[in-house]
Write a structure and sequence with these properties.
Elements lengths: L1 E3 L9 E2 L2 E2 L1 E3 H14 L15 H5 L5 H13 L4 E12 L4 E10 L4 E7 L5
Antiparallel strand pairs: 1-4, 2-3, 5-6, 6-7
Length: about 120
């Protein structure tokens, strides 16, 4: 499965004025970053799209709920077969979350996303 490539800032990558495509593990990694990086309600065309970071980060005792929701969002991402490693941290003082995880793609390739912080893109 191929998808349009995005650069580190989330802009469409171009080569010679044409969009760049990624596939395989790179496409899965990009889908995961996009899925977790979009705050629910942020996209005007569909307010249900995105991850509910605002709701989670505003609650007390959020760790277990965040882990359940993150695992579901990751495992349901197209191209993901399974989650093989997962760690979620939440700093209550700064109210910053970070997630590190490794998945296996449906093609058997490992994809690791390290220290993903929502809103950092």
């Amino acid at each position: 499965m191929r998808t349009l490539a995005l650069d580190a800032t989330g802009d469409l990558m171009l080569s010679g004025g044409r969009p760049v495509l990624v596939s395989g593990a790179d496409a899965v990694a990009q889908r995961l970053r996009t899925r977790l990086g979009l705050f629910q309600g942020e996209w005007l065309l569909d307010r249900q799209v995105g991850f509910p970071w605002r709701r989670i980060l505003g609650e007390k005792g959020v760790d277990r709920l965040a882990e359940v929701l993150l695992r579901a969002a990751i495992s349901l991402c197209p191209g993901v077969r399974s989650i093989t490693a997962f760690a979620f941290t939440f700093n209550r003082v700064s109210r910053r979350a970070s997630v590190t995880f490794t998945v296996t793609t449906i093609a058997g390739e490992p994809v690791t996303i390290a220290d993903f912080t929502p809103g950092a893109v």
